[in-house]
Write a structure and sequence with these properties.
The protein is mainly beta. It is 10% helix and 28% strand. The protein folds into two domains: 3-11 and 21-88, Alpha-Beta Plaits (2-Layer Sandwich), CATH 3.30.70; 101-186, no CATH class.
């Protein structure tokens, strides 16, 4: 049976609040999935990756037992923001990274993968395996990105828009387009050429 339980991710300290950070936890038989809405950048890897497990129109929206634990873990690893995390209950491998990488998204956040200690605005410290960190300065969920960069038309300094193509740690390709003026996410890790 799947249970919805709110549990603290990590209780280190908060100078402004005695409350620990909260994540929604969805416990299955073989894998436990946790979700933090404040970190989600709504890329939709979960919804496309395993629609039987992740369904927005259903409550609870996460049913870990509706898919194989390995598949659920693979889908969660594609979540660039770290909003989705997992803990294996069947002895399968938990998320691990060799080192930490930082990848700037074209005119967007920094994608960070590895052991990340993040201090929130309330000075609470949380350890995460993945995060999308704001670099436009306008996020309402600092230090995390909340896509405000799209609303304000943020342009990162130092990017050459004529050859702006980057691959995220999740294997997605970010490509600039002239016609729309914004990049688009692609699930393919193969190189694609700039569209006119």
């Amino acid at each position: 049976m799947v249970g919805l339980v709110k549990t603290p991710v990590l209780r280190l300290f908060s100078l402004n609040s005695p409350q620990p950070l909260m994540r929604k936890v969805y416990r299955g038989k073989d894998i436990e999935v946790s979700f933090d809405l404040d970190q989600c950048v709504h890329i939709g890897e979960c919804l496309r990756g395993e629609p039987k497990v992740f369904q927005l129109r259903r409550r609870p929206w996460v049913l870990p037992d509706a898919g194989e634990a390995d598949t659920v873990a693979d889908v969660i690893l594609r979540c660039p923001s770290g909003a989705l995390q997992f803990r294996r209950l069947d002895g399968g491998p938990d998320e691990e990274h060799d080192g930490t990488t930082v990848t700037p998204v074209l005119n967007g956040p920094l994608l960070v993968v590895g052991r990340i200690e993040v201090q929130r605005e309330d000075r609470t410290i949380e350890v995460l395996p993945r995060a999308t960190l704001c670099r436009c300065g306008y996020s309402n969920h600092k230090p995390f990105c909340d896509n405000e960069h799209l609303k304000i038309g943020f342009k990162a300094p130092g990017w050459n828009s004529r050859s702006a193509k980057r691959t995220t740690p999740a294997g997605q390709t970010r490509e600039s387009t002239r016609s729309r003026g914004r990049g688009t996410w692609s699930r393919s890790s193969a190189s694609t050429s700039r569209r006119a």
